[in-house]
Write a structure and sequence with these properties.
The complex is a heterodimer of chains A (266) and B (308).
Chain A: H1 7-12, H2 30-47, E1 51-53, E2 64-68, H3 76-88, E3 95-97, H4 102-105, H5 109-115, H6 123-131, E4 135-138, H7 142-146, H8 162-170, E5 174-180, H9 182-185, E6 190-192, H10 193-199, E7 204-206, E8 220-223, H11 237-265
Parallel strand pairs in A: 1-8, 2-4, 2-5, 3-4
Antiparallel strand pairs in A: 5-8, 6-7
Helix pairs in contact in A: 2-3, 6-8
Chain B: E1 2-6, H1 11-22, E2 26-30, E3 43-45, H2 52-61, E4 65-68, H3 79-99, E5 104-110, E6 123-124, H4 140-155, E7 160-166, E8 168-170, H5 177-181, E9 186-190, E10 196-197, E11 199-201, H6 202-214, E12 219-223, E13 229-230, H7 231-237, E14 241-245, H8 247-253, E15 275-276, H9 279-285, H10 293-301
Parallel strand pairs in B: 1-2, 1-4, 2-3, 4-5, 5-7, 6-15, 7-12, 8-11, 9-14
Antiparallel strand pairs in B: 10-13
Helix pairs in contact in B: 1-6, 3-4
Classes of the chains: A alpha/beta (266), B alpha/beta (308).
Chain lengths: 266, 308
């Protein structure tokens, strides 16, 4: 179970180079972290009652790339992975996810993603964060992952290979992670792409109760053992593709572990 | 060394001149503006850089090095005149420098060269192209001046040319884009946005320019000091009040009701960050800033007459 420490105290324990104003060189702000973390911690502990396995695989310090699956309309799974790192690790760590590009254009979203360290998903950002020994969180499925319909929730869409090249270039281990339950919280039956475009987002997910308001479904997170690949990131596409497929297969197998862990917890 | 400073009457240029005099260099300055209390060691020529009289200074005084700080931003010059100063002036500098055997030129440019775009990397490196120029056409002449200056690297290989892209500056009393923007008690921001701003103390900028000269730097370099800070904190820490307004409302209010006068394109700079990576400059010169972000903001806040 997640520790009951106050989020503010956990934020104080983050090993990040905050200045006297409580801001780090990426614009991450202690007060924004405490505020948003406080709200999400309630969801993590009481609403989704997140169960987390395999935390021992995450390095306590130094660079690493967490690579996970998406489902459930909105990126609830991503938010819960980030919360597990803050609430369950000792010392707590801040996961920095690669945010979708549209978020930087949206008012308020642009501020909150930036102040909580969720920088725009650009290769330059990923590399810089890893070289700064940060904990990078990547969902290679992107919006195609969150757009999965309920019946597709345990499947994985195309992964792309960029994340492998970046991990190799930065010499970072890849920690595979599987999240289940996000699609039970937000079971998408359809996606409205045209309305989404009008709102400046990729799509609007529709649930049986129309709005993507999450149900209190229980969410399970399983971290797998680190995967370290040999190379410089300049290898041919077929080599990189093979590595990406290995990570994808590992996550698929962790999804099954998460499902059986969730079943036995019921 | 005989150093000619162009635009010597500007706030930072004066500090550069004073530092160089203190180091024992002969300092000559050109500016159309006067410098009333200039140190007696500084030889001033109150002439237009694009006129014959300026070329005469090059020809007669034969400087070893030139520091070009005679460019203006969209805030202080408008339209054609700004174009003439930034482009015509920069062209004249390199022509004269080449004709009269100047060994070294330092061009003081701006980090806004990179432009503010939502999909750009947070930390800009020197190898990147300028972005979002279409949204802020008033920056075009400064971008062109910087690119023109960098052609000297291959057109005049005998000359050591350094192009510095310097972040915003703050000082007491302070001059420049950010100082002007923060001048009033109420500072407009775009509702829903809070970009990171990178600034350094004027004194540190002057030191960085002198270092570039001393190290005979060649190439393009970003120059900044402390880490960036969100605009809202800058406003708070300088004792001002932020007035967040929706973009369409703000674009109609700028220049009125006591709000600073800004070109419409500048609003993009209030939404998205422009932050530069300074690794190359620090490695080449060993530069370390002396004023951190908190000190710099405090000094600006406590400056007499509110930083004017």
């Amino acid at each position: 179970m997640a520790r009951q420490d106050s989020v503010k105290a956990l934020v104080e324990r983050l090993e990040l180079p905050f200045n006297a104003l409580g801001v780090d060189p990426y614009g991450i702000s202690k007060s924004h972290l405490a505020w948003s973390g406080g709200a999400l911690a309630w969801f993590y502990r009481n609403y989704f009652r997140v169960r987390c396995h395999g935390l021992e695989h995450i390095p306590r310090r130094g660079r690493a790339m967490l690579v996970g699956n998406h489902s459930g309309g909105i990126a609830l799974d991503g938010a819960m992975v980030l919360m597990s790192l803050l609430l369950e690790l000792d010392p707590p760590r801040l996961g920095q996810a690669m945010a979708e590009k549209f978020l930087a254009r949206l008012p308020l979203a642009s501020v909150w993603t930036s102040r909580t360290g969720q920088v725009t998903g650009l290769p330059e950002h990923a590399l810089r964060l890893l070289e700064d020994d940060r904990l990078l969180v990547v969902f290679p499925e992107g919006v195609r992952g969150t757009a999965k319909l309920y019946r597709e929730r345990h499947s994985l869409v195309d992964f792309g290979t960029g994340f492998i090249r970046l991990a190799l270039k930065a010499g970072a281990p890849i920690i595979p992670v599987a999240v289940t339950g996000a699609a039970d919280a937000v079971p998408t039956v359809a996606n409205l792409y045209r309305i989404g475009r009008l709102l400046g987002v990729p799509y609007v997910p529709v649930t049986p109760w129309l709005l993507p308001i999450p149900l209190p479904a229980s969410i399970t997170i399983v971290y797998g053992a680190p995967m370290v690949f040999e190379g410089t990131g300049r290898e041919d596409d077929d080599v990189i593709h093979r590595y990406a497929e290995a990570v994808k297969a590992q996550i698929a197998s962790l999804i099954e572990d998460a499902r059986s862990a969730a079943r036995s917890a019921r | 060394m005989k150093v000619l400073i162009l635009g010597i009457s500007g706030g930072i240029a004066r500090q550069v001149a004073t530092l160089l005099v203190r180091e024992g260099h002969d300092v000559i300055g050109i500016d159309v503006r006067p410098w009333a209390n200039a140190p007696p060691e500084v030889e001033l020529h109150q002439v237009d850089l694009r006129k014959r009289a300026a070329e005469d200074v090059f020809r007669r005084r034969r400087p070893d090095a030139v520091i070009h700080m005679a460019t203006v931003s969209a805030l202080s010059g408008s339209g054609e005149e700004r174009n003439r100063i930034n482009l015509g002036g920069t062209q004249a500098v390199f022509e004269h420098a080449s004709t009269y055997g100047v060994g070294q030129v330092v061009f003081a440019g701006r980090h806004t060269w990179y432009g503010a775009a939502p999909d750009a990397p947070l930390y800009h490196t020197e190898g990147e192209p300028p972005r979002a120029l279409d949204a802020f056409p008033e920056l075009a002449d400064l971008v062109a001046a910087d690119l023109f200056a960098s052609t000297a690297l291959w057109r005049h290989p005998e000359m050591a040319t350094a192009i510095l892209r310097v972040c915003y500056t703050l000082g007491a009393p302070g001059s420049g884009t950010l100082s002007s923007f923060l001048r009033g008690p109420r500072v407009p921001t775009v509702l829903g946005y809070d970009p990171l701003f990178q600034f350094m103390h004027e004194n540190d900028v002057a030191h960085a320019i002198v270092l570039a000269l001393r190290k005979r730097l060649r190439g393009v370099f970003n120059v900044a000091g402390p880490q960036p800070v969100p605009l809202s904190l800058i406003i708070r820490e300088t004792g001002r009040t932020a007035v967040p307004l929706p973009h369409p409302v703000l674009s109609r209010l700028i220049g009125r009701f006591g709000f600073p006068r800004l070109p419409p394109g500048a609003l993009g700079h209030l939404k998205y960050p422009i932050v530069v990576d300074t690794k190359a400059f620090r490695e080449a010169t060993g530069f370390q800033h002396r004023f951190d972000e908190v000190q710099t903001l405090g000094l600006y806040r406590d400056a007499p007459v509110g930083g004017t």
